Amino acid sequence: MTDYYVAEPAPVVAPTPAAWQNAGAPRRPRAARTRRYAMTPPTYFAVEYAINPWMDVSKPVDVQVALAQWENLRHTYLKLGHRVDLVEPVPGLPDMVYAANGGFVTHDVAVVARFRYPERAGETQAYGDWMASAGYRPVSTRHINEGQGDLLMVGEKVLAGYGFRTDLRAHPEISAALRMPVVSLELVDPRFYHLDTALAVLDDDTIAFYPPAFSEAAQEQLHGLFPDAIVVGSADAYVLGLNVVSDGLHVVLPSAATGFAAQLREAGFEPVGVDLSELLKGGGSVKCCTLEVFV
């Protein structure tokens, strides 16, 4: 396996809490930007253990259905004009399909995930090796980080979740490695165990989120930073409707999140619904299956 260097910590941004506001994202012209994604086919997908509330080992998984749904997602990105790199799946790593958790890649740096649960530990090497082979400089952290599951870039900063998976102590390490400010946000509902299950980045200054998934302090932070954020309701949040991928105009989201799709249209975005119901059995959806490579 590639040797990684460990980043030295840097200060983490702590925004001043602001008063609760929710005007909703104003309708204005939106513009798509060509993106680069990495995805791993669900060749070995299964629910063999339960490490989040969505996983139930008693419910059978149809791998052929999962593959078809995943392939439809990949083709959706291609039809929208985006690039999709493929990462080779590894036997014995059933959750590797959730590529977003593999790390955080931007410019020439790749922060490689360090997983909380031993069942996923082997993904660190698999994704680290892929990042190195793709020409990126792998960086490890001393503390747990679960990649873009808990690290979402918006504009020139990174929103970073903690509370269930990623360790708060990893945030300064990530800030140092990426040379970007990091905003720490506490998650409090185990159903929303990663940041990308409760918050969606829509463009460089627009987000959507589900407030009950966050601590009161985190809610105030988000409202202070994004006063026009789209606040999503429980019905859409409970189908992982916020687990989306946006190119700034088109928002690829779970097709069951119909209320959120209407909110997106009202704000000037173009929702693109896809069915990932089989992969939802493992606790992931659109964003979980998509590692964005920022260039």
Automatic annotation (TrEMBL):
Query: A GO molecular-function term, please?
Result: arginine deiminase activity
Any one GO biological process? L-arginine deiminase pathway
Q: Which UniProt keywords apply?
A: Hydrolase
Q: Does the keyword Hydrolase feature in the UniProt annotation? A: yes
Domain of life here? Bacteria
**The UniProt record lists the keyword Cell wall biogenesis/degradation:** no
The record ties this protein, via Gene3D superfamilies, to:
L-arginine/glycine Amidinotransferase, Chain A (3.75.10.10)
Name under which the protein is recorded: N-Dimethylarginine dimethylaminohydrolase
Report the source organism.
Answer: Mycobacterium rhizamassiliense
